[in-house]
Amino acid sequence: MTKILAIESSCDDTSVSIIENSKVLSNVISSQYFHSKYGGVIPELASRAHLNFIYEVLFKALHESQTSITEVDAIAVTSEPGLIGSLLVGSNFGKGLAIKYNKAIIPINHIEGHIYSGSLQDSGVEFPYITLVVSGGHTTLFLVQSFADYQILGSTVDDAAGEAFDKIASMLGLPYPGGPHIDKLAKAGNSKRYNFPRSMINDDNFNFSFSGLKTSVKYFLEKEFSGINFENEINDIAASVQQAIVDVLVKKTVDAAVRKNIKSIVIAGGVSANSQLRTEMSSKAKELGIKVITPDMQYCMDNAAMIGFLAEKKLLSEGFDRFNDLRFKVKASALRAKSVKRIKN
Ligand code: KG4
Ligand code: ZN
Predict the structure, then answer these.
(1) Which ligand is nearest to the CA of 278?
(2) For the whole prediction, is pTM greater than 0.85?
């Protein structure tokens, strides 16, 4: 029996989770909605808010799981990538707990957490699979062979899909984060009304590009609606923008599965909450006999359960001795294409 206390604080969600034998006993997430009034996450305010909430979130997670901190075997923390101040709050808080209670400490890469989040509720997900991690900061396709081995197939060369949703939503006068608002408006819109670009959709690689879409929507609004209220058209614009993003995400992900002869796809990250992405990915994949795993929303968004889940795998495969060093690096930078991480089996 292994019990892990995990802490995630890489951006604007403060989360603590207790994991035991791959089961989530608690997964408490406190989201910093106040950034909405600034139109984006303000790093300094994010780290201060993590400081204010982390105790409360910790106690709630311990209480919900009926766990005493002395019972846990190790503390897992997100060490990269993310906002550096936010990462430092969670990782230093974890280090403090590790020192006080004499526990192992396991640094975890946030994106690796997302990659394996499909296993959190569906322990039957079989390797190999393709994971699309699609959020405000990332749009990356992975070929996942085991908990010990994965490979980046492609990534965005400019904006992440979530960033495109958010920036275009802002042009439409919608609040931050804009993705959920576009999703909602699109339900009553005609997605064929406007034809926005699907950059790189037919390129012979698994990379993405979304900055051209953003620019195209900007010029479109300036040309068609300069000085004119577009309120009556907003549903159609939202639906057409969403369709352009979803078409690219679905085509590239399904193509990756087909070309690599893979039978399962996991979608993770905030944008995987998008209703049309979920529906279209599932239906396209189904036609080809491919299974799509869409984690529950609490595991799609930033959460500590995915950090604890992977930490437990690492602890079991690499042993406690490997995780007693408090001097690990906390880094803002993301995974780079072609990198392959391995855990000893
Ligand atoms: O994973 P996440 O919570 O944080 C990051 O790591 O970025 O993702 C947040 C992103 C935002 O860009 C937000 O607009 C987008 O996920 N998002 C959505 C939806 N829900 C959240 N985008 C499209 N449709 C949604 N329903
Ligand atoms: Zn994330």
Answers:
(1) 1
(2) yes
